Amino acid sequence: MKFSVFQLSRKGGREKNEDRMGYSYTKEACLFVVADGMGGHPEGEVAAQLALQTVSLDFQRLARPKLEDPAEFLENALLSAHHNILKYAIANQMEDPPRTTLVASVVQDGNIWWVHCGDSRLYLVRSGKVLARTRDHSYMELRGSGVTSINPERFNRNVLFTCLGSPSRPFFDVAGPTEMHRSDRIMLCSDGLWSSVSETVIARELANKSVSRAIPDLIDAALRKAGATSDNVTAVAMEWEMPGAERFESDEPVSDTLPPPLEPDAGGKAEPRPDAPAA
Prior knowledge:
alpha+beta, five-stranded antiparallel β-sheet, 6 helices, 11 strands, 25% strand
């Protein structure tokens, strides 16, 4: 595989950054993940990190050197992340579990698959146009897709109706395979980016710049537009088979840029490591 990748996260106007991002790769497969811990619930950053770690560890365990079924992997990894968040809440006797969105993608055999839950997005850009993007699990997106049974006066249009860590089983969408073409770009991002930067600008920036230039520029644009009240802004992007791009191959079976596992804090709070996918 030959690709270039860049990732960046900024706190914006918030007290702390509850977004998490990362990527892992072998010689034949690569994984990209963004999770956005949800405000209004405790410890959103813990939920996001547990989701990121769970999906990554599952990838490292199963991609030897590639996944048998990427779509099945993404579904199982998402559900495993959800169960690990609930286990964390039970272990710490939390009445309100931490919650997070999740978007993750796998590129393998020249194709891409993705899964998402909530409003963190994936964009696939080809020849300056958005070829595909995820649809948020929000009432606003339901209305935009033609669902007329939702009364906009009863609900905040931006409220999500699913996430990881909620008491009920999460709703999610899996897509792919879609064939990747040379110089295709994919970007996974939190809502702090797409809520402040138009789809047209996203496509233009990704198409006309390297990902190492486009992502900082997009994040800076989002921060300027939102001003002092900006949300956390996070993105990871990849350009496929770019001429002159670094060839990501390693002597190690799996490489990654993910944070270390959560450890107990000074007060002794239990923060369990992710385990294998739940049945």
